[in-house]
Amino acid sequence: MGKNALEPRMASAKRVYQQLREKILEFELYPGSRVTETELAEMFQVSRTPIREAVQRLESEGYLSVRPKQGCFIRDLDIPRLMQYYDVRIALELLSLDKAALFMPTAQLETLAADWDPATQPGRSDDSEVMEARDESFHIRLAEGGGNTAIAEYLADVNNHIRVVRRLDFTENQRIDLTYVEHHKICEYLLARDVTAAKNLMIGHIKRSEEFTKTLTLTQLAQKRIRARSRG
Question: Who has greater pLDDT, 192 or 168?
Fold first, then answer.
């Protein structure tokens, strides 16, 4: 198969991957539910080939599992497993702060602090995806600013596993406001090279998200689905 013939198929598989992943993250496809390749092909109006490629990628990333002769099963919310990822995240974040305090240039920290200044906080958005992506970017920029790209890569992997619940955590205005305050303060501590204070605040910041996850119920997921559909 020539290169020109491959490009449309690859573009189709990428589109299906992005849209299917979004449906999982927005709970349009419910945790534990079953779908077949045929159903997905009809849903996205494509052949089964790009569906299969997208499903394989999503399975490798942990969003779903494929059972022979049964179909695709959207991943369940395994709360104990999610708690393990939060443990790993805290360890990575604290190491990231050590590196940032030592090596992140003052100008970069000042820029990051300005981006999260509560006084210049952007207007409200009903899109929790926007806030969740912005929050992830803050933590990745700290890791990259410290010069250790491996930390950033591992954090990105952890984020992939907990993103499905982090979005729910950013549906309340109070939580969004607090995130701006805490991110800005962490940057201020790092600018003062007070890594102990930065670490203590970071632990509390992540623990709040972890506690939210522990109390997450399927009822909340159902309510999230209803809100998402009403916006559509």
Answer: 192
**pLDDT tens string 179-215:** 999 999 999 999 999 999 999 999 999 999 888 887 7
Domain boundaries, the chain: 3-74, 79-231
Question: Is pLDDT above 60 for 126?
Answer: no
In this prediction the pTM is: 0.76
What is the CATH superfamily name and number for domain 79-231? GntR ligand-binding domain-like (1.20.120.530)
107/129 Cα distance (integer angstroms): 28
Domains 3-74 and 79-231 share a fold: no
Gap between the Cα atoms of 31 and 201, Å rounded: 32
Alpha-helical runs (H) found in the chain: 3-25, 37-44, 48-60, 79-103, 106-115, 128-145, 149-169, 173-191, 195-214, 218-231
Structural fold of domain 3-74 = Arc Repressor Mutant, subunit A (1.10.10)
Identify whether the C-beta of residue 97 lies closer than 8 Å to the C-beta of residue 143: no
Phi, psi values for residue 67, rounded to 5°: -115, 125
